[in-house]
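Entry 12.
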Amino acid sequence: MSGPLRSGPSTWRRAATVMLAAGWTRPGPAASAAAEDFRLLFLQRSLKQRFLPGAHVFPGGVLDAADSSADWLRLFAPRHTPPRFGLGPAPLPRHPFPGLFQGDADGAALPDDVAARICAIRETFEEAGVLLLRPRSSAPAPREPGLALSPPPGLADWRSRVRSDPHCFVQLCEHLDCTPDIWALHDWGGWLTPYGRGSLRFDTTFLLCLLRETPSVDIDLAEMVGYKWSSPTEATEQLQTQKMWLAPPQFYEVRRLENFVSFSDLCRFCSDCLPEAAEKWLPIMLSTADGAINLLPGDELYVKDSDFLEKTMSTDKKTEEILKEGKVVNRIVFHGLQCCEIHVNLPSKNKHVYPKTYIMDKSHTARL
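Predicted 3D structure (tokens):
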């Protein structure tokens, strides 16, 4: 390899997604075992989409130049000033993998982590009609769950304009005298698409937004064709009964969120958690004799070698053999496109919460 690979259009497209977690007081189905008093917003992608057709995903999309435009500076002024706009210290630069360079976009007016927040908020409006905005005159309260802005008149027209030209999102915020509520989004982590998972590869920042109540959702009926509010436990149940399909990173994060049985516990965790706990991972694909495994950082087989940026590992052993031999594991095991397991036995460190092991049997019943 002649030099470091930069996360960008020629390798990984930068993207951002936001997990909307809202307080929930409505009773669930009697048959559901879900105990969590919060729900996550899942949007269902159209079957016509090239990437993850039919999957349930969190709102989000690819960063646009408009998300880091200098036009945002005047909107945040005078209360919030660059480069951090009151977000706190800049996150420490970290390279998730040897040979992979990650830095702020050249010539951008805003740091990448600020632009990622704006991107996630813009995409949430485009896909779900939810406005994560804050009046310019109000002070942010990053330790308290927020509320989405009530939909303004002419929502459909504004959304059409923003979808056609992301720069129009600045104009919408000016029209409403609001700023994107970047302070309501908590650092959660991130994923880079591993080699071998198709031609589209994304460097996706995962953010978490806590809302006191569920906002009104108005999906675009183009990229997204449906939505549902589900607790982490409900999402797992719906995955095993094939009522939902979640891509592996989304499922892994859902299982992480299942560690929190109450909305207040999740809020407290986000208030106390440091940005360093939000890790961005590049899985390594291990091809077995009868399947595939995504190896994740901390797993005994995970090797930080720049060769695996563009290659997969391979073994003549079957998946079950690899699983039986594993002593220190953090991996996603594939048994088909819509059937995967999570194997983890790592202790939490630096406030990074790992999911519980999830094993799906042939009848799609979880054994925990």
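Annotation: DSSP finds eight helices and 19 strands in the chain. Helices lie at 71-76, 112-128, 155-164, 168-176, 232-240, 248-257, 263-272, 319-325.
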